[in-house]
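Researcher: Going back to the complex we discussed earlier. I've cleaned up the inputs and rechecked each line, so this should be the final set. Can you rerun the prediction on the complete assembly and write out the structure?
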Amino acid sequence: MAHNVDIDEKELVGLVRKGDTAAMKTLYCTYAGRLAAVCSRYVSVDDDVKDIIHDVFIKAFTSIDRFEYRGKGSLGAWLSRITVNEALSFLRRNGRFGERIDDERMPDMADDEAPDIDDIPTQVIHDMIRRLPEGYRTVFNLNVIDNMSHSDIARMLGISESTSASQLHRAKRQLAAWIKEYRQKSNLD
Amino acid sequence: MDNQWSDKFRDRFDDFEVPVPEDLWDGIELEMSRRAERRRMTVLWGRRVAAVAAAVAVAVLAGVGLFHKGPEMRMELADVVVRHDSVEAERPLRRDMNEPQIAGMSETSVADDETALVAVADVAVDTDVASGAVESDGGVGIVERQPAEEDAAVVMHDSGTEKQPVRKEVEDPAAASPEADVEKSTAPGANDYDRSFTELVYGSKSERPAARRSSRLVAGLQAASLPGSSSTRAGYAMLTRNAAPYAVPMNAAIGQDPMNDIMIYNRGAETTSRIRHRQPVRVGVSLCYNINDRFGLESGVTYTYLSSSLTSGSENNRYETNRMLHYVGIPLSLNVNLWRSRWIDVYVSAGGLMEKCVSGRARTEYTVGGVSATTKTEKVMVDPLQWSVNAAAGLQLNISRHVGLYVEPGVAYAFDNGSDIETIYDKHPFNFDLTVGLRFSFR
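Model: Rerun complete. Updated structure for the full complex:
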């Protein structure tokens, strides 16, 4: 499904508001891939991702009246917001945020060692993130990629700020370890 | 782990996409259509009740406005002797109505139509507006109109077959003088013959909701009234067709029967009759099922009120009959939407209406010697169904998503139902009319 970057998003939103099914489909085609990517960072099982994205679009179409178009990117941001919220709701219902990896299994690493990721395919990094334990993964996603502060994360997940910070730290360390491993295996280093 | 590293992560995922399963959209589309359907049905059922309640309210208001004459006097109906002339023996025997002697064919027929105005929202019925003057709550205009058919001596003819004056068939000597008098009086009468008149054209339509956007069921409220008619002629008359002449029995004594008294006292005097069929008023509620965007099939229930009055005789000796008939009807019509926009819908419709008189009452007041002597009330029943067909064009102004205000000029033809009871439908079977109404539609 091609996504049409040139489409007038404001117009599209207007049509979706009126219940235009073709406009809904266009919106879907434009954003489904992106939103599925966001969701699958949080939720590791693909079938769950599919269900969540279904709910995301239903929610978007039914509450489109509440969306105010504020320029380029505002629609994408709004949809991402919905996606993250839906993913978190799912995790809250089904997951355990407090889970953590046994620290002993974590490889020792100097704090300033941050392996290069520029030459690693995004899909690989994506898969690595998905492999993280849920608690680490959620905090990592919210803080690093979706730009949320620890205090907001703490409030949203019902954990303390310090837990949030330590989860993040651990997530980063784990990812660094995996990246290093990958680089060695792929002969990038 | 510094912020730069984190930022790199962020940038990587900016435009990142993963493939989505093929059937994901189908599921979304299905659920969206299910939700739309569910919403339609809920609103529909909820509002249908409101629409019916509103229709009932309008009907009640219309009824209250119409029945302002006050309580009727009820008296036991005395046995009315029906006599008819031997020549008239072929004419069907009518029920319980006096058969006066009828004479004089060349009536002066002056149609001064009344206007009864009914607005939809606030029902105000004014049955006594002078002819030609139009005051409207509904803002409907006046239309010059020639009657499609002027049935001159309606009371005395066979309704459809032949229009022959009933003259000189009366052998009763008592009849002779009224007839002679009539002939005298018809001469000046003929000069007053006036055929053109103004009447307010109002709807004889029942419901006509048309298709509205994508809603499948549409309900409508409307009230309408049809053109009325009135005519004046010399001689005696009845509110029925095929009236055979009434003959006063030879040895009739005064004081036994008011009709006899009137006839006797009027011997040698000039008598006139004036029949008025007031504008029928119709209210109704309807539902329209939208087959698709263009066509809709509509039905519902209507209530029509027909009021007629007759004054016959002379100044001091006369009888006055007021008759009220209540009809309930079921319309069926097909609506075709021609053009639709945000504000305006344009459509045409065609269909029919089947009505049945469910109740009727006639009150006759006899004035003998200038004194109102007797009043008789009797039930009137019109047995046959009243069928009519109609066609109209409509313009609807969409006030809101759910409410539209419409006007529908149209034509209707009422079929002769073969009944002797003469109504406005017999007088003016072919009518132009105008309906205004409110239409509710549900998504």
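Model: Worth noting: The two ends of chain A are 37 Å apart (CA to CA).
Researcher: Good, that matches what I expected from the previous run.
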